[in-house]
């Protein structure tokens, strides 16, 4: 699953706890990126339809947007970089890669980044 969203091996590593439970350990990331990654990992591929809060790459808009809603055959997204909203087709979307999410979040004006 991590490879599907572009998490490289130097960003995330599979380790085991002392009890032998497998865990994924990430290199330090800001809280906004962690929230988007966690939402994508837990909800992104659950039923084939983009889930609310998941970061998606839009081929048509050439940017990353957070899924804000769905209506019929369209998905409402909000840009992670500048907050503008648009509607897209699910066929035009894929789960955003970590590097794309990071680039979008770092492109934001500093006042809109939540720590």
Average of the residue pLDDT scores? 79
Cα separation of the termini: 26 Å
Shape: globular
Tell me the β content: 25-35%
Q: How many whole angstroms does the radius of gyration measure?
A: 15 Å
Sheet with most strands: 5 strands, antiparallel
Task: State the helical fraction.
Answer: 10-25%
Q: Structural class per helix/strand content?
A: alpha+beta
What is the number of E strands? 7
Characterise this structure:
By secondary structure, this protein is α+β, with helices and mostly antiparallel strands. The longest helix has 13 residues. The protein contains two helices and seven strands, in the order ββαβββββα. The protein is 19% helix and 31% strand. Helix 1 runs antiparallel to helix 2. A hairpin with a 5-residue loop joins strand 5 and strand 6. The model has no long low-confidence stretch (mean pLDDT 79). The strands form two sheets. Strands 6-5-4-3-7 form a five-stranded antiparallel β-sheet.
Task: Name some characteristics of this structure.
two-stranded antiparallel ribbon; 19% helix; 7 strands; 115 residues; 2 helices; alpha+beta
Task: Characterize this entry briefly.
This protein is α+β, with helices and mostly antiparallel strands and 115 residues long. It has helices spanning 31-43, 98-106; strands spanning 12-16, 22-26, 55-58, 63-71, 74-79, 85-88, 93-95.
Write the layout of secondary structure elements.
Layout: E1 12-16, E2 22-26, H1 31-43, E3 55-58, E4 63-71, E5 74-79, E6 85-88, E7 93-95, H2 98-106
Antiparallel strand pairs: 1-2, 3-4, 3-7, 4-5, 5-6
């Amino acid at each position: 699953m991590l490879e599907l969203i572009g998490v490289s091996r130097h960003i995330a590593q599979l380790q085991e706890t002392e009890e032998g439970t497998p865990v994924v350990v990430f290199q330090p990331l800001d809280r906004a990126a962690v929230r988007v990654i966690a939402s994508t990992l837990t909800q992104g591929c659950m039923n084939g339809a983009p889930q609310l809060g998941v970061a998606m790459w839009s081929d048509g808009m050439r940017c990353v947007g957070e899924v804000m809603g769905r209506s019929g055959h369209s998905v409402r997204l909000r840009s992670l970089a500048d907050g503008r909203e648009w509607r897209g087709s699910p066929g035009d979307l894929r789960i955003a890669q970590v590097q794309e999410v990071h680039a979008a979040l770092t492109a934001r004006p500093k006042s809109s980044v939540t720590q």
